[in-house]
Amino acid sequence: MDRMQILLLLAMALFALGLIGVIVRRNLLVMLMCMELMLNGVNLSLVTFAQQTGTSAGAVLVFLIFVVAAAEIAIAIPIVLVLVHQRRTLDADAYVDLNG
Amino acid sequence: MINSLLAHLDTALIYAFALSAFVGAALMLVLRHPMQVAMALISTMVFLGGIYGLLGVHFIAAFQVLIYVSAVMVFMVYVIMLLDVRDVSFTHRFSRWLFPGIAFGTLLFAALGYGLVLGVDRLATTSASFGLAQFSAAFLSEYWLQFELTSVLLVAAVVAALAVIKGSRRRDRG
Predict the structure, then answer these.
(1) Is B15 in contact with A17 (Cβ distance < 8 A)?
(2) Which of A20, B18, B119, B168 could covalently link to A82 via disulfide, CB atoms 3.0 to 4.6 Å apart?
(3) Calpha distance A13→B44 (Å, rounded)
(4) What per-residue confidence (pLDDT) applies to B121?
(5) Which CATH number fits domain A3-98: 1.10.287.3510, 1.20.1250.20, 3.40.50.150, 3.30.70.60?
(6) For B61-86, what is the mean pLDDT?
(7) Above 0.90 for ipTM, yes or no?
(8) Helix (H) or strand (E) holding B164
(9) Range of the domain at B155
(10) Of the candidates A47, A73, A75, which has its C-beta nearest B76's C-beta?
């Protein structure tokens, strides 16, 4: 295995671990951080592919993902603040009545 | 001699950073306090930044540290300090989806890994790396529309955040 495969494997592992974290953890903030971990895994795979093919498209996409991550946090944190302000808990199970 | 040693050092450092990033990500699943999880995530991001630097994409490494670690995660750590709620999510870390979640994640990883093994021969390996100048030219000439769309997205995010806060305030008053 060369190092590109190792890095792609790491990217997959980060994505899978982030997904597991979103599913199994109860804390809203921890779930948000696990989503960030998934974005990081995707970023790593994009950078690896961009390096491998010598094109800049992957790097451009990484920058766009940075912006999306910043926008996601900028919206998610106020929503979490409002939710906690209303029910005084970070437990995701306390908000099951929000599903449609 | 020294050059070949440095090349090996490069690869060894990438492996070490990859292992550390994986350990940090795995710790995120088991640590109890959100602040410890945030520290594990920050260490993972810093190690990923190190990997980007070693791969030769220094500007992405810089932005990984500047945007992710210093903007996004500082914001996150601040909110964790603000909301230090010791509730049921603190005493019981895992939801009832613990085993299905782990099974699904392992299955996903296995499927992706199988795809990687299958597609190994098709991975073209060119050593042609790209620099910041090439990236910037492509960014502002080829991808200008996406660049503008992200600025619209950022404005929409700011407006949405303001709307969320304002809506909750109006509900408090009314």
Answers:
(1) no
(2) B168
(3) 12
(4) 67
(5) 1.10.287.3510
(6) 91
(7) yes
(8) helix B144-173
(9) 131-174
(10) A73
